[in-house]
Design goal:
By secondary structure, the chain is an alpha+beta fold. The chain is built from six helices and twelve strands. The strands form three sheets. Strands 2, 3, 4, 6, 7, 11 and 12 form a seven-stranded antiparallel β-sheet that branches. The protein is elongated and about 65 Å long.
Length: about 220
């Protein structure tokens, strides 16, 4: 799901980056999102892990998003509560190996971008459901052979430049050498994937983009 949403987001920005920037500037997410979490003290969710993924309003260039991943609950204990500004989308990922349960829930900040908004997730002893701020019940999805989700140290969490998506790479592969020279910064490893270019053009393009800089995330 994360790759699909990120792909749509980057695809739209890549089609018309100047227009996209005007839209972002006009409707920028200037509100503060506050996230809090609670695990029932009587629960047996000793292996519960919850990750939060944040997508920044700003992009590094028209080809890459800024994304932050942070583990907010690990081994059933709340590690972090946070506030963040300039969030376009956020996703929660919940997993419990012992109960063979896994859930992801994607939300956007579109309707709250001009007002501060608090999101609270409650994890009761019965992990067949959990509730958010609006008291909407989210039923979990049971999967077989579920794998443990990755741990992201809260103390090291920061916005990082995403990897290129397949759809974005296809857009780059449809462009000419002259168009790519004028484009926003492209990672060196992705320039090497542009098979429509000759080796000489790739070498020249690497030198050009090595001098360019990525835009910074909004924080």
């Amino acid at each position: 799901m994360k790759k699909i949403i990120l792909g749509i987001f980057l695809f739209l920005s890549a089609i018309s980056y100047p227009i996209y920037n005007k839209i972002v500037n006009a409707f920028e997410e200037t509100n503060i999102l506050s996230f809090s979490f609670n695990v029932d003290k009587n629960s047996d969710l000793n292996d519960l892990r919850v990750n939060l993924y944040l997508l920044n309003s700003a992009t590094a260039s028209e080809w890459y998003a800024y994304r932050k991943a942070i583990t907010v609950i690990d081994k059933g204990k709340v590690l972090s509560e946070l506030k963040s500004k300039y969030i376009l989308m956020y996703e929660i990922e919940v997993a419990s190996l012992s109960k063979n349960l896994y859930l992801t829930k994607l939300s956007d900040n579109v309707f709250y971008r001009k007002m501060d908004y608090k999101v609270k997730y409650e994890f009761p002893n019965d992990f067949n459901l959990f509730t958010n701020t609006d008291n909407n019940i989210e039923h979990t999805t049971t999967l077989k052979n579920i794998k443990n989700v990755k741990y992201y140290n809260p103390e090291l969490a920061c916005f990082e430049i995403s990897e290129i998506t397949e759809s974005t790479l296809h857009i780059l592969q449809s462009k000419s050498f002259d168009e790519l020279k004028a484009a926003g910064k492209i990672k060196a490893k992705d320039i090497l994937k542009l098979n429509q270019l000759t080796n000489d053009e790739k070498t020249r393009l690497l030198k050009i983009h090595n001098l360019k800089k990525f835009d910074k995330p909004l924080e």
